[in-house]
Amino acid sequence: MARSAYIIIGAILLFGAYLYGVTALSPVEPVGRLGFVKLANPDMYPGHPQSKVLASYAAQRGSKCALVVHYAGSSNYRHYREGNVTIIELAYISSEYRTDIDWGEVIESFIFGVPDGKYRYRADGYEFNSLDEAMDYVEDLARSKGQEGPMPMVFHGTVREGNVFINPGCGFPLYVQIAWRQYGRLGAYYYIVKGLLHPYLNNPYAAYELSHASDLQRLYNQGALDYTGYD
Which branch of life, at top level (predicted)? Predict the structure, then answer.
């Protein structure tokens, strides 16, 4: 085998060992995108299909908590129970509301990461000025629910309008920011790629969401999937 091949294999093994070691010490394990489109409103609550998918994933790994990150709307993003798993929600607050993609921001974030101070954050109705403050709250909450070791972290991933294949959806910048904070640049790149592929392989509703994406987007935006008025 050529020397270059040994170097490549060695580099891969070292990177794998690095990720394994950092994951063991990290409060979160980045998993990836949860869904493609909104199936109902409210879109994360006990019994919701995407909520059950996340809880099942966490339970299979022996985790008592799971973290889902969002782009903040009007919700308080309160934690709740799905079966035996506590679903913790954290959202980033942007000064500019938009549902499309700012490609300049995407490229800048990919190269330099998400700068400190760019966003504020919300969880359980509390707002935080920094990611460190927000994650301290999330980690304390997880420990109070019996979490030991890293908990699975997903970004919601839903797209209200437009192409669900191109747009990574709700919460993606915060997923990147947390992955970069915990694992560094190369680790973040790995979890971005892994995370974007995740729902195609692990979401049992993926085929339905993708084949009915435009219809579900239209129904959601028209309020036809709003179940807040029902018991």
Answer: Archaea
